[in-house]
Amino acid sequence: MKAEQNKMVGVDYKLTVDGQIADQSRPGQPLEFIFGTGMLLPKFEAAIEGKEPGDKVSFTLSPADGYGELIPEAIVDLPKNIFMVDGKVAEDILFEGSQVPMSDAQGNRMMGIVKEVGEETVKMDFNHPMAGKTLNFEVEVVSVRDVTPEDLQGHCSCGSCGGDHDCGGGDHDGHCNCH
Question: What is the pLDDT of residues 128-156, one digit of tens each?
């Protein structure tokens, strides 16, 4: 069976960014997704379309085909006092590299990365962590099957839930956000 529209596809993958492994599937826990439903990057799916279990492919996605270019306007200085909890600044989350869930004025949830902590302000980056990055993938298709009713219940089966991935709700579109 081939990887094609509305098939459940399982892949083992390794993502390398800037010469470092940025993400990879765990042994025996392939990333599973319904092909063609927008769960993964379109060019990722295009690279494995028509592949069968056992097929391997390596490909590179430019920032435009991955998570986009860095948007300078998405890096902002926020008043430090908005990070107050019970009358005190939440110092435990305010350190360089910390990911902080936040909401904008319309109530949209977003993840910000602390870039710098000053006396009165905190520089936050709301770009996707992989924005501006060239993504190098090594992928092996390990399974292709028909979709079952259980598959349609919207869970993420990347094997990474509970780890450092955001599989609970994905990012802006509610899709699996395994990579």
Answer: 999 999 999 999 999 999 999 888 876 44
* pTM to 2 decimal places: 0.73
Residue carrying the six token digits 């993400």: 23
Q: Are 114 and 96 in contact (CB under 8 A)?
A: yes
CA distances in angstroms from 69 to 79, 130, 156, 173, listed in the order given: 26, 9, 26, 18
- Rounded CA-CA distance 43/11 in Å is 15
Query: pLDDT (tens digit, 9 = 90+) per residue, 61-88?
Result: 999 999 999 999 999 999 999 988 888 8
**Neighbouring C-alpha atoms within 13 Å toward the C-beta of 91:** 2
